[in-house]
Amino acid sequence: MMAIDQHMLWGAFFASLFGFVLLYSLRRRNCSSANKKQLMKKSFPEVCAKQSFSDGESRQLEGSGTDVIIVGAGVAGAALAYTLGKDGRRVHVIERDLTEPDRIVGEVLLPGGYLKLVELGLEDCVEEIDAQWLVGYIFFKDGKHARLPYPLEKFHSNVAGRSFHNGRFIQRMREKAATLPNVQLQQGTVTSLLEGNGTIKGVQYKTKDGQEHKAYAPLTIVCDGCFSNLRRSLCNPKVDVPSCFVGLIMENSELPFANHAHLIVADPSLIWFYPISSTEVRCLVDVPGQKLPSVDNGEMANYLKMVVGPQIPAEFKEAFISAVDKGNIRTMPNRSMPADPLRTPGALLMGDALNMRHPLTGGGMTVALSDIVILRDLLKPLHDLNDASSLSKYLESFSTLRKVFSSSPDQARKEMRQACFDYLSLGGIFSKGLLALLAGLNPCPLHLVLHFFAVAIYGAGRLLLPFPSPKGLWIGARLISSASSIIFPIIKAEGVRQMFFPATVSAYYRAPPVMQDVQKDVAEIK
């Protein structure tokens, strides 16, 4: 009923990691000020109600007008609003729904993403939401398991991954952004961009009462997520849906290895387990294709019990079956989309509206936060955003290289999948190096190239033992060819100098660290 392509999932996972690290390699480190403002004692709805607009066009913020309009207040939009507001920009945020989101993804923040929160002064947003620490992964395959810890030995004790309820995290960032007097959050749906003489001047939006409004600013940043309705105006979207997530919550359950995400390399899908609170464990089953068994008529529950259940380790299989029986089964398509922005003066895409990688990488929020660091630093020298020509020049520097893996099912994929698992199982520099890349702790593209080729060569070598065969030679050659076709264009685009010295990307990003407790950690990321 469903196309079973095991290795397409692993290939998408590994190459999405590849694209994520290449993007992350363009980031530089700037720590934010240690002066932290206390959150207002008023509730978030009261703050937003006080700041919302009543009718007509957008009213001006304190001063002469709005500097930046942000469409969307998810992870990217809320963090960006606080960051630009803290830098003195007058920000108007328009979000379709300011109530707490309820999603089954966006629940894992990598250690590198946590360091970006520190740089932005938002690290307290993972506090008081029952967030759980993540210090590594446990990989399960064919009854065996491998523990792969994040290489955090050189970092401050607070540095680790975090997992949590996505909505709680977003609300914390919205609340913090709302404490700034020059940031205004408003609930409304942006229906179109306002254009004049080839430049985006602002947005048109509709409030809950159905009233149409207009807001103007020299810079409009669209962060309205994976279902963006403004994307087509600002990029050439090519959205792919390779699989779907089926989500469950296991209540009052514990995983065998505390503070670790558990990944089961199953057939035909990969399965994630990770804590999202002190009493809840999220289970995500990655199902290939777009056609799913029906949840309503019980087909999905039967699929989870009969196909997925037997592959769950005994330690938490009972909790998994119990979660299926409770019936709160949710699904979500996994989308991937390469970034292909159009040069549009006055506007910029960010977050999932710009680029999506397979959620299995867990890198989406880390990439978004890293993008915000770049944009903040690019805009800092530009005091007047109304200078259209200067603004366009700065924004051009924001475009960065991303690559999305696309392929078809074959035996080479299966071999690559097995090779990757065995490579990670070797431990030592093999697993630590790859885990540092996956965790966002090492943005050096050269290291990624080396590990990517090492996995391909390792896989090809396995096929030649104990004696080479024509089939083994053919599949091995395809493994190496596949790796080359992905990596060599990246090397050409990045340049040899940048491959070896990613810290020389731009002088824009250099600033002295000021948070003493983590400044050494930030400096460690090279």
From TrEMBL:
Alphabetical keyword list: FAD, Flavoprotein, Membrane, Oxidoreductase, Transmembrane, Transmembrane helix
Domain of life (superkingdom): Eukaryota
Matching entries from InterPro entries are given as: Squalene_epoxidase, Squalene_monox
Q: Where in the cell is it found?
A: Membrane
What are the GO cellular component annotations? endoplasmic reticulum; membrane
Q: Which reaction does it catalyse?
A: squalene + reduced [NADPH--hemoprotein reductase] + O2 = (S)-2,3-epoxysqualene + oxidized [NADPH--hemoprotein reductase] + H2O + H(+)
Q: How does it sit in the membrane?
A: Multi-pass membrane protein
Q: Which cofactor does it need?
A: FAD
Entry's Gene Ontology BP terms? response to hormone; sterol biosynthetic process
Statement: the UniProt record of this protein carries the keyword Membrane = yes
Concerning its family, UniProt says: Belongs to the squalene monooxygenase family.
Function description = Catalyzes the stereospecific oxidation of squalene to (S)-2,3-epoxysqualene, and is considered to be a rate-limiting enzyme in steroid biosynthesis.
For this entry, the protein name equals Squalene monooxygenase
Provenance organism: Carya illinoinensis (Pecan)
